[in-house]
Amino acid sequence: MKIDDTDLKILSQLQTDASQSLDDIAKSVGSSKTPVWNRIRKMREAGVIGPQVAVLNAEALGFEACFFVLIRTSEHEADWQRKFLKALRDRPEVQEAHRLAGDVDYILKVRVRNARAYDEFYQALISEVKVHNVTALLSMEEIKMTTALPL
User: Which residues form the HTH asnC-type domain (predicted)?
Assistant: First the structure.
């Protein structure tokens, strides 16, 4: 799908507040409601726009600890990867997981209530899949968090 300037304006508005009305979005991008709706529908169908969700305040809900978990493994077989990916997908504590180039194979963003909850997560993970080395880094302060892309 080819994205034009109007699409970018619409996407920027949706990144800021996806709950705003079509009228408000149309006004802010200098268009009318129907063309804006059609553009949004096409971008959803093309996969440019994913699911719309509410961003919750983790600390307000008692999830006060955020760990970045660096994982090194000596296992690279397909069966190990399948088990590892399933273990990550099955754990709601894992908010993000990335496979990396370099010395570290994977990095996880894990959100839990406290250090004890992290240890329970860690023990469960290593009981399911073999890892060579795990380093957990506790985030002391979240300085910036956004889901917005720099359009």
Answer: 3-64
Fold of 5-45: Arc Repressor Mutant, subunit A (1.10.10)
Grade residue 76 by pLDDT with cuts at 50, 70 and 90.
confident
pLDDT band of 68, cuts 50, 70, 90: very high
* pLDDT average, residue stretch 92-108: 97
Q: Please tell me the number of Cα atoms within 13 Å of 89 on its side-chain side.
A: 6
Residue that the structure tokens 């553009």 belong to: 39
**Positive or negative torsion for Cα 79, 81, 49, 18:** positive
**Which sequence spans correspond to the domains of the chain?**
5-45, 59-138
CATH for 59-138 is 3.30.70.920
Query: Using CA atoms, how far apart are residues 149 and 12, in angstroms rounded to an integer?
Result: 8
Report which secondary-structure segment, H or E, holds 5. helix 5-16
pTM, full prediction: 0.90
Amino acid at 27: K
The set of residues, in sequence order, having a beta carbon less than 8 Å from that of 24 and lying 6+ positions away, is 13
